[in-house]
Amino acid sequence: MAAHPLGCTCFIIPSKMLRKLAEQTSDQQERHCLLDTAELSAHLRGQRSIAPMTLGIAAATGEKRRTVYDAQNKSKLPGKLVREEDSKPSADKAVNQAYDGAGATYDFYREILQRNSIDNKGLRIDSTVHYQNKFNNAFWNGQQMVYGDGDGKLFMGFTGAVDVIAHELTHGVTQYAVPGGLVYEGQSGALNESISDVFGSVVKQWTLKQSAEQADWLIGAGIMAPSVGKALRSMADPGNQALTWSGDDQPKTMAGYVENGDVHTNSGIPNHAFYAAAIALKGNAWEKAAPIWYKSLSLLTPNATFADMAKATAQAASLLYGADSAEQHAVQAAWKVVGVS
Ligand SMILES: [Zn+2]
């Protein structure tokens, strides 16, 4: 049976970053810890999961439902239930951050894009915190969010960054909103990653009430120690290591496209196209650019290429603002900036 395109296990920290950090450290224990996380990440990614068809009974329209579990430093999911919708805040900061980040993401999709949760049918958003011991990653496993605590030396935890949470939950949105999902390899995989960065960044901008000009356009700022870097990626200037970290290998345009590159590498190209569109459209990225990108998801197919995405976003702009509109021209020009047409 062919690999099911739905439900990738998608990590915020790419395995290649963990391996690079392992090469750089002189601390034996730290190296083992990083390689273990990289290996487990690769292992889990191999277990392709299928979108939950029956998990979580659909809620009534508009109803937000979140649950947070505590894995108590073990691997078993989901773990012990520690917070539900409308229950009192926990004494555990990670629990509340996971709850609030899921809430901000739900609210953004609901209020700005009129989407009712991940599946548009009110799917309950489940999150597990304290996964394993000093686990240096966070991921969406096709059914729920899972957060490690980080080792406290290189990674400081993942629940504090709303863009990380929205990035991961958007992998869930993509698996439902793109008919058949987006295959997590090649250009469709890079698009899958980019779509998560786009909505991850826009949810953060919306939360902070920042215009496209004011936003930092960074992904993962605040999750790592200064010795590692400042962020995972920059959408404004992909591959600018001064803004991110020393292993950032993202191309900004097709001139730097990496053949058979990692999905987290070539995603720099569509990321920058979104940034260019948002800047050209002025104001807040959630007002025009994000709705255009969101509408394009339903126009994609599982093996969509960058050129398909350029076409879909131009079509979406036409559907929302009219053929030949200034918005459509801005979107087309943005893809030209990155060398896709
Ligand atoms: Zn991702």
How would you portray this structure in words?
There is one protein chain. The protein has 341 residues and is α/β, with parallel strands linked by helices. It has a domain at 186-337: Neutral Protease Domain 2 (Neutral Protease, domain 2). It has helices at 15-24, 28-46, 93-113, 162-177, 186-208, 263-266, 268-281, 289-297, 306-321, 326-337, and strands at 10-11, 66-70, 80-84, 125-129, 138-140, 145-147, 218-219, 233-234. The strands form two sheets. It has a six-stranded mixed sheet with strand order 1-5-6-4-2-3, covered by helices on one side. Strands 7-8 form a two-stranded antiparallel ribbon. Helix 7 packs antiparallel against helix 10 and helix 9 (306-321) packs antiparallel against helix 10 (326-337). The longest helix has 23 residues, at 186-208. Mean pLDDT is 92; it is low at 1-5 and 50-56. It binds zinc ion. Zinc ion binds at residues 10, 167, 171, 193, 196. The active site is at 168, 264 (proton donor).
